Each structure stands twice: as C-alpha cells, then as structure tokens.
C-alpha cells in the first residue's frame, strides 16, 4: 500500500514539467525516477493470494509504469527544447533502462547526443532536423514508405512547429495507410491470413473509419475462425477414430465455440454424445446384473451430461434402488427367520434336557432304567416315516431359503402327511401362507 501511494505521488509530481524548473528541483525528480525501479504494489502475505492476483498486479504495475515513463519523457523533452541536452540524455537513458522499447526516448537520446556540446545549439539542431527531413524525403522518393514515415515522425516530434514536416508527415501517413492496405491484400492472396490481418489493422489505426478496411478485417477474421474450427474438427475426427470419445467430445465443443453454426461439428457431436452415453448405460447394466447396484448407479450418473433422455436414466436408477430395497428386506427377513429357528431349537433342546432329567428322576424312584421310562407306545408312525418326513422338511427348507415358496410348500405338505406331528413342517406351511397372503 505504501508503494502504491509512493507511485501515485511520483506521478502527480512528474506530470507538470516546466521549462524554467530549477536544477535542484530537477535533481529531486531524478531521485524519484530512480526509485521507480524499486517500486511495487506491496507484498501479499499468502502464497495463494499471490497466485490469484499475480496477473492483476502485473497489469496495474505496467499501467503505472507506462504513465510514469511518459511523464518522465515529457520532462526530458522539456530539457531538450530548452537546450539542456545533458539532462535530456540522462533522463532518456533512464527510461530506456526500464523500457528498452520506448522509441521516443531512443529518438530523444540520439538527438541529445548529437547536439550535446555544440557551440551553437540552435543552428546544430536546425541542421540535424533538416538532414533528417531530407533523409525522410529521400526514403519516400525511393518508395520506402514505412521508413520515410518513421523518419518524418521523428522530425515532427522533435520540432512540433515545423509546418513543412507536418505537411509531409500527413501525406506520408495517407500513403502509409495505402502501403499497409496493399500489403494486407498481398498477404491475403498468399493465404497468410494472420499477416494480412495485422497489416489491415495497421491501416485501420491510421484511418479508423475506413469502411473498406473494416470489411477486409471482418472477412479475414471469419476465415480465420473457420480455419481454426476446421483444424479443431479434424483433430476431433482423429480422436474419434482412435476411440477417444471424451477427447473428441471436448474438441468438438471447442470447435463449436469458434463456429457455433458448423453443421458437421454439430452432427458429429450428437453421434459422439450418443456413443458415450451408450457406453455408460451398458457398463451400468453389466454391474446391475452382478448385483453391484451402487456402481451401476454411478455409471448411469456419468451418462447424464451426454444424454438427451434423462427420464430413461432416472428409471434405471429407480429400478436399481428398488431392487436394493427388496434384497435388503429379504436379507432382514431371512435373518429374522434364522434367529426364530435358532430360538425354537434352543427351546426344544431345553425341553429335551428337562424331560431327560425328569425321566432319570422317575427311573431312580421306580428302580427301572431310563429307557423303560422314556419308551413311548407305538402310535402307528414308524421311525422310517418320521425319517422320511424329516428329509422332506429339510428339502422344503432349502427351497424356502431360495424364495421358491411353491416347492417348499409341496415338500412340507408331504412331510406332514408322513408325520403329522412334525411341528417344523407345520410352522413352515403357516409361514408360507402368510407370505403369499402379503404378510411378513
């Protein structure tokens, strides 16, 4: 912030040069000028801030530097006009030390060097300007318009009141416009569109309202855009042929940014988008068949930027989520069923243990064996029937676990017929009836 204030202060101090400035004041300005090389816009504390604002800071510094250099040049020229060639040369040299491309400072330093130490400065300046004037006319006569224009421009800048130089400068400026215009036409015929455009813009700077130049510039810029779009389209076609669909898609979008109405690029873009979308959809379907539902949904999400039918993708996602819900409920049901069977088995074992204990106590009291106490009268169901019934129950249990309820019901019905006392088969049949009726 301090540096910014210093720069603004320096600019204000240097913007009002006067021919009658005292040498001490001039030296003060020189001191400020030398400080320009050390000035900046302040330092930013954070690296990310430096990165973010670097270009903005750079542009602002360039603007301030250009303003200050022009102000210093005005001071240098004031010295030159007053015959103080030494100080004019020094200030011009300092300008060139910061900006070597400052053409006015280069011109002023050469003139000051040439006149410095002259016994009769006015006569020497007159001879120097006359020599440059004749040199400019000689170049003009030879048809070297650009060189003649630049040389005559120096005469006009060094001697603003030279009416003769102004006249020829204006005339050369008109010819220079024609010179750039013709170079632009020649470059266009040679199909060097960029060079042609540069020349027409140079002509436009001289005659900003010339409709013919504007028409040429418009035509060439259109051709350059079309050329650039065609190059981009060609690269996209190559990528498409190589199977690099995404790169081809990005390239086609860049081509359409250049030429939005390009029918070939638009048509190919539709095809590429369709292929990318199809690829993601098919990939998602494969994942769906392997029951990788989240991965499938992710693939269908990637297809959205390329689809023209988002409703179809929504249906695919909804179906996957519904299947996830159903499978989750089935896993929960199976878990609950397994827990119920485990509890029943534990209760059965507890009852058997209790019955065994009572049988042992009864046998001890009666003085008989436990087998005699636990032996049950035959009720018409053989051990073989019970075993077969149990086998059918186990088969039905497998079908039930695989959600094949009809097969399970058939097996458990046979089990009940073989052994009406088979409680597991009875419980299973009841559960099937509840499921088929829509219960849990």
Walk me through this protein's architecture.
- By secondary structure, the chain is an all-alpha fold.
- Among the domains are: 1-117; 385-440, Serine Threonine Protein Phosphatase 5, Tetratricopeptide repeat (Alpha Horseshoe), CATH 1.25.40.
- The chain has 18 helices and no strands.
- It has helices at 2-14, 23-35, 47-81, 85-98, 103-115, 121-141, 145-158, 163-189, 193-206, 211-241, 245-258, 263-289, 293-302, 310-366, 370-374, 383-401, 405-418, 423-436.
- The longest helix is centred in the C-terminal third of the chain and has 57 residues, at 310-366.
- Mean pLDDT is 80; it is low at 1-30 and 32-44.
Number of helices: 18
Average pLDDT reading: 80
Largest sheet data:
none
Compute the gyration radius: what is it? 49 Å
In what range is the share of β-strand residues? under 5%
Helix content: over 70%
Q: What distance lies between the first and last C-alpha atoms, to the nearest angstrom?
A: 75 Å
Low-confidence parts lasting 5 or more residues at pLDDT below 50? 1-30, 32-44
Q: How would you describe the shape?
A: rod-shaped
- SS content category: mainly alpha
N-to-C series of helices and strands:
HHHHHHHHHHHHHHHHHH
Q: Please report the total strand number as a whole number.
A: 0
